[in-house]
Amino acid sequence: MKDYLTQPIDFGGLTRGEEHTKCSLQQSIAQRIHLFLVTTRGEFRTDPDFGCIIWEHDFENMPNINTWKDKMMVTIKEGLKQFETRLMNQEVSLVISQEEFADEKGNASRRIKRRLDIRVKANMKKTNEAFLFEETLYISPVWLD
Length: 145
Hints:
Blueprint: E1 4-5, H1 11-15, E2 22-23, H2 25-38, H3 65-83, E3 87-102, E4 108-124, E5 130-143
Antiparallel strand pairs: 1-2, 3-4, 4-5
Helix pairs in contact: 2-3
């Protein structure tokens, strides 16, 4: 059943009297988690606490990658509890790797970024159905000379 509004909301269409596109509960939750992950805290004017701290530590030197990873997993889980209350029993996992990007001609370039694979497993409170969300983020661009 599609009872939830998709993001982003088309306010122009709404002011013209058009009906906004709707989505399922699972899609709505996934969109909200995505928005949380790609938003820097303080960027959302109506709630300065909304957003993920990953972006505050984007270029941070990581002497201990496991400590950094654990900190991010905890803060993501806390953020989900606060900003996505339609979930319960959240489990957050984070895999950090590096990815090399090719140039326009397909040649391996000297550009490497950290890749974060984020996975959220939970249950939706309304139905108790299993919920799975996966997102890949790229941070900390590294250039090799």
